[in-house]
Amino acid sequence: MGKLVEQQIKTLYQGVSRQPDTVRLPGQVQEADNVLVSVVHGGIESRPSSRHISNISSISASHKPAIYAYARDAAEQYMIVVNNNTIRVFDLDGVEKIVFTPNGVGYITGADVDDISFVTLADYTVIANSQKTVAMTASTYTDPYRALINCRTTNNATSYTIKITTGGSTTTVWSYSGDSLSGTEVQSNINSNISLPSGFTKTELDQTILIQGNAAFEIEHTGSDATYGPWTMTEVVGKREYLPLDAPTGYNIRVGANVDGEQFGYWAQFTPDEGGWGESADPYAANAFDLTTMPHFLIRNAGGTFTFQQGAYTSRIAGDTTTAPDPDFVGSQITALVYHRNRLGVVAGENIFFSQAGHYFTFWADFSTQSLDSDGFGLTVSSDTVNKLQHATAFRRSLFLTSDKAQFEVFGSDKLSPSTASVDRSTTYLTETKCRPITLGNTLYFAAQSGRDAVVFEYQYDDTSVSNIAQDITLHALGYVPAPIIRMTGDPTNDMIFVLSESEPNAIFCYKMYLDGNTKAQSAWTKWTFGTGTIVKFIQIINGELFVVLTRNGATVFEKIFLRYELSTEKHPYQISMDRQVSLTGTYAAGTGLTTWTTPISIDRCVVYRFCNRPRW
Fold first, then answer.
1. In the sheet that 422-427 helps form, which strands lie side by side, from edge to edge?
2. pLDDT value of residue 614
3. Nearest CA to 236 among 252, 219, 253?
4. Binning pLDDT at 50, 70 and 90, where does residue 608 land?
5. Is 461 exposed, middle or buried (0-12, 13-18, 19+ CB in 10 A)?
């Protein structure tokens, strides 16, 4: 027979507990639906109600849209919806913006919420689709059939020749033996006396002569040494000092030796505007990204419209596939994007690859012969199992990476660079891959799964252990939030986290905390429900307001909830605990004496509140 326990319960602000009655805190309850628990207010009050913003007719109940909301500045906030092979943009008043799509829609065809990731950089929102495998575009460069003669000073009594081999036949096209000639005199002599094969032409470029052929050929010289005599070259030259001072703009040549059939060195290109010869990329390599497979750009235009199009990414700057390899995400699917310490990070497989510092769409090193701190670089997570990374979240000065079974952190010193960056495994919790971690102040939260139950970990730096630790904030309410968690959002001002579960789509689970110094005085779970059959598709906190996209009675709507009702500019004289509130202006018909209000939503019943300001007599 049970034992009666008498105790005084002063408040009920600790939320739901699934622990046995004997170990529950006095302020915990079995269920807490549609309430807000507050230490400040001393207990339980009705949760804030929602306000209707607009209808989104393009989203049906069966759709799984990828939705992303962000605040550009205090005046402009937007919500992006990728759904049913289209992309749409709304402001937070529900007004749809014009989106131009010159060449981008094919990239998002067939994608849904599990495939799309977003990151915003100023007026550019970069959108990645994990269904697409990143590829490079094959080079169309062909042998231009040309050569250079660097006309240098000759020595006395030295014999010099230039020979051209084409079609299997070698011909001496120029020879000289006599007094010393200056570089200008050598150029004049060769230009006057060279006898080229049929179909070949020559062009004077100061002390350089360009030979243009009509088929593949080889050119060679005799008598010249490291300092004196004309030096010939086609697409390879042994040393940089043999390069002429002038050449055609865009002339490509490989500088370096050829040992046992292997070429060493680097590629150079002549660009007069940049001072002559500079390091360049192998023109025969696949240097450009296939832009149809790379993340696309949604660009906010000056007039308030948007353009969704292929991204503009820099091609390989220098080197070849050996000295400047493709970024790690080439040949893989991109699962996440992140902005971290002035770089764009791309997550694919077991790797994260960073752009150049400050150049977010350049992933290559500037040189193949040296490494700069600003260069793009990649890191690979290491452990005793395969860890395909799913999410990346900036946390404090590090970057938090998650796979389905482990967590990693990317560290750097004062600057994140190829020489200082490292990645280490921090914890090994089973992670919910559908849900991106969030940060709240100096704490990070990520979702996990324990059988049918969802788990939320609180990840933060611990001064005692001098390391990051993860604590389960659902432990006392295990089983209350069903797995899997598909989205979280948080409000640092009110110390609240909101969670969506795929298994209970008509509810938003709310976690409320209160810190008293270093002590967590409140750790409370509650649930906000929105009616049977409702599907909550998206939640996001922006500027202290909770924005919600949900399908109710077959119609998808955009709503918002004021988390601090007392601070709202749209509050009533008293709080009304009814969702889908909308302010309407009626139309009076003198003939019938009736006033008609037309609601923007389909409802089977409603309550009308009339607020009037009557003059005082």
1. 391-395, 398-402, 407-411, 422-427
2. 44
3. 253
4. low
5. middle
- Say which range, 226-230, 506-510, 609-613, has the weakest mean pLDDT: 609-613
The DSSP string of 377-411 is EEEE---SS-----EEEEETTEEEEE-SS-EEEEE
Strands 236-237 and 252-255: parallel
Q: Which two tokens stand for residue 459?
A: 């990840």
Q: Is domain 98-139+287-428 in CATH 2.110.10, yes or no? A: yes
Give domain limits for the chain: 98-139+287-428, 146-280
The helix (run of H) or strand (run of E) holding residue 588 is: strand 587-589
CA distances 494 to 11, 510, 563, Å, are 19, 12, 8
Distance CA 72, CA 207 (A): 56
Long-range pairs for 200-207: beta carbons < 8 A, 24 or more residues apart = 200/164, 203/248, 205/244, 205/246, 205/247, 205/248, 206/245, 206/246, 207/150, 207/151, 207/152, 207/183, 207/244, 207/245, 207/246
From CA 145, how far away is CA 217, in angstroms rounded? 7
Cβ–Cβ under 8 Å, residues 299 and 102: no
Average pLDDT over residues 82-109: 95
Overall average pLDDT of the 205-222 stretch: 96
pLDDT of 612 strictly over 90: no
| AA letter at 115 | D
* Residue 471: its H or E element: strand 467-472
pLDDT at 377: 96
Average pLDDT in the chain: 91
Q: Nearest CA to 356 among 373, 334, 368?
A: 373
- State residue 42's pLDDT score: 72
Instruction: Write down the pTM of the prediction.
Output: 0.90
Report the relative pairing of strands 99-100 and 306-309 from DSSP bridges: parallel
What's the farthest any 2 CA atoms get from each other in the chain?
Answer: 123
CA-wise closest residue to 99 among 311, 312, 302, 299:
299
Distance of CA 572 to the CA centre of its chain: 41
CA-to-CA dists, residue 219 to 148, 165, 172, 277, 509, angstroms: 9, 6, 10, 21, 76
CA–CA dist 234, 220 (Å, integer)? 9
> Of 254, 249, 250, nearest to 268 (Cα)?
254
Q: How far apart are CA 448 and CA 536, in angstroms?
A: 20
**109 Rama sector, left if φ>0, alpha if ψ -120 to 50, beta otherwise:** beta
